[in-house]
Amino acid sequence: MRLPSVIVILALLAAPVAAQPRQPIAVDRVVAVVNDEAITLNELRERYATVTRQLQARGTPLPPRAVLEQQLLERLVIDRLQMQLARDTGLRIADAELDAALRRIAENNRLSLAEFRAALERDGIAWAAFRADIRTEMTLARLREREVENRIVVSDAEIDNYLADPGQSDQAAVVTLGHIVIRVPEQVDATRLAQLRARAEEALAQIGAGRDFGQVAASFSEVPDALAGGIMAPRPADRLPQIYAEAVAGLQPGAVSAILRSPAGFHIVKLIERQGGRVDGVLMRQTRARHILIRPSELVSDEEARHKLAGLKERLDHGADFAELARVHSNDLTAAKGGDLGWLYPGDTAPDFERAMDALQPGEIGAPVRSPFGWHLIQVLERKNAEAGAERKRLLARQALRERKSDEAYEDWLRQLRDRAYVEYRLEEH
Questions:
Q1: pTM listed for this prediction
Q2: Who's near 380: CB < 8 A, 6+ residues apart?
């Protein structure tokens, strides 16, 4: 996602030099106006090139160019509206935070930051552009958290009802879905509603005729994951939006639902995979772990904190005592206990910390990992499965209900943001 200066670029032909032939210069133009800003043809072309590479890498057949360009332009409009709101309300990602995120991305690819940058540039991706993309993604995520996630309310009565339903409170199978969403504005007349319904019916008909679901999603769907084939991240079925959970309950893997209607619009859902099933009680994996935390500060830079932990990791690999090093070096309250965090349930720690911890075997010490609190060395001591207590069950129920509401609330918020904006399309102009 690009964050260019919003100006209309005029191509001026320089005066010819001697007898040399004049070289053609590509002319940029405005393809959409979003409130008081413009989206240019070059931005659309850059996004088209990026997305087509991604779709081809996944093996997803490409939609017709005109269809994909229209989808991409709408996505650029939605992104621009969110970035405008972030700017106008003072939300920004600091350079230090961005640098830490880029370093984590490089480490996830098992590369140093310099090696990662070189690899991107070998693939024709400019570092400045990639850096701007990541800043935009982080801004959009922070905006969603502020405007949507933090405003979701789960009442005690909802939790009571959830826990009283055995089919909900049991551990659910993890499902992977594909979905297509045709948005319906808040204020819509019967004619426009019929047109949107017909669009959903056309998408379903193309799937029924054997067209690839991902290609249809890229052609029709109006949500951010459309250009990734409409694939949602795997999650427990009881954490899906209610309309999806009910639809997939009767589907076999590979099957596609009928057209579903929600306040946000029309939906089509495909069950790609279902793993596991329901079991009696709520058994959860618990992990006992310990860590050493180095917090960056005015005196200790982010890189110095990471480097210090790398040195401690080397000492541990040569037999140093973890608890002793934690007591001496850790900036966490657990230092006095040798870094012992006790038994942890899923969701007890920051996502980056939890992902790194879950990847370790008992006794293993991981490489330094960054979380919002600083840099950690993590050692997993042991694991067990245990039934959750009453308070833990209520916490899990609250988390499930929040997650269930999250996607619906976000789509509703985006629809309202779009409906309030002034948008003028000029893609078809010559």
A1: 0.67
A2: 287, 288, 289, 357, 360, 361, 362, 363, 364
